[in-house]
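Hi F.,

I've been meaning to write this up properly since the lab meeting, where we talked about keeping a consistent format for the predictions we share between groups. The idea is simple: the sequence comes first, exactly as it goes in, then the structure tokens exactly as they come out, then a line or two of notes. No screenshots and no reformatting. I'm using this chain as the first example so we have something concrete to point to.
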Amino acid sequence: MPRHESDREDLLREATALVERVELRLEREAETVVAGFRRDGAASFFFGADPVYQFNAAGELRRAYVGGLLYKTVGGQLVEMRRERTADAVVLESRQLGETATATFLSQAEAALDCLKSALAAGRFEVVGQVSHDISSPNVAAKVSAWLAARPSRISLAQTSRLK
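Output, unedited:
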């Protein structure tokens, strides 16, 4: 989560924790999508600056950034974290989402991932740039497509937002 919501890093250049990453321009979409993988296979998806969905190596949602709010998983539940600024500090106020709010949130995440999956499957995208350390298989867009095709239709929540 950026320190200031207006900050927008160049993810393709700066998201070095994602050892393989690709920036895609989808047809009829104003924002590009950056998708990538950590060394352990954990995937992250940045739909412009917001929303962002981050998964662990098991494909479970661990963190998200949507509508200017940070979401993380705690004990398999989704917790919304809102920044409250004071003159002296920034405090994160948190609240656990209920069942209905969690289902709505996950449905929106699934729709975003399904839209990306469809665009990749139909070839309705352009690779803006990519970084790949795997010289035997440098096509990161194909890896993203394979990850999306293999994921369950319903997103499950990780027990923790931290990577193991």
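Notes:
Residues 99-122 form the longest helix (24 residues).
The chain has one domain: 11-150.

If this format works for you, I'll send the rest the same way.

G.
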